[in-house]
């Protein structure tokens, strides 16, 4: 190969190397730029638009970061005894319904607390709009925001303690939501709902409340049935012995018997407690009736100057007066068998006899 040809070959190879280096540089530079962009995007993602701090001392603090402005919103769960009176009642009343229906959930919570203040300090002032207020409270109970839901639950409890039977016609929407919330897995919501249900059974008369509760004892949701059973069992003793007799022991024993075979243990336990209460009331009247008959028989024989020993009086009373004059006052066992199906009667008698044996032992 000549020297000229060799020089030409070296020139060509040098040119190719330069082109190759240049192309590598062009390919490398964009990758660096892309890396910088990815880093910036990751940094942006690490800067959240909003932060929610955990609940502290029962209060929920929400920090909202919107560009340059930072807003702190704190929802306080204030116990009833710690609520203060309102400064401007008239203005509060005028804006009450609008505040309850607001899309601003913090405003809704504040307004719910104002409802509580009005009910505690100015009961009569809210009477004219009470139905609309209760409708809005029921709406807040459905809120997906736990802060709104819990504040509405606390408001319901104060409404029960203040207005008692005055709200009975508007109770249904509150009742179904409270039964649902008491069945939830969120502990702080569930506990608040339980307290509200206790307030309901404490402050609303059982004669008005029991018919409202009874349909929920057959609800498809077993948890709702359980909570309703517990409320029912708590309400019945408040009737008193005379009230239970007037309401109908036969009706109540049928309700309790139907809950003995329920799916959840809470329902069954509530049914057992109710049956023991009914048994005590029934046997109390049974003993009173027997004593009255004994006294009547003794007096009758004394007037006629007949000497009859106590055993004869008791036997005569049991055989004649109890059976003939008061056939409805038979033994507890006979009463259960006459009012219930054989299987239900057997279950009821088993529960009450076991409990009685436990008390005796």
From TrEMBL:
Domain TOG: 76-307
HEAT repeat locations: 209-247
Protein name listed in UniProt: Uncharacterized protein LOC106762968
Coiled-coil segments on the chain, per record: none
InterPro entries, per database record: ARM-like, ARM-type_fold, CLASP_N_dom, HEAT_type_2, TOG
Transmembrane segments: none
Cellular localization per UniProt: Cytoplasm, Cytoskeleton
GO biological process terms held by the UniProt record: microtubule cytoskeleton organization; regulation of microtubule polymerization or depolymerization; regulation of supramolecular fiber organization
GO cellular component: cytoplasmic microtubule
Organism: Vigna radiata var. radiata
Lineage top rank: taxon: Eukaryota
Encoding gene per record: LOC106762968
A molecular function (GO) term: microtubule binding
UniProt cross-references to Pfam families, sorted A to Z: CLASP_N (PF12348)
Record key words, sorted: Cytoplasm, Cytoskeleton, Repeat
UniProt keyword NAD present: no
Chain intervals for the UniProt region annotation (Disordered): 1-52
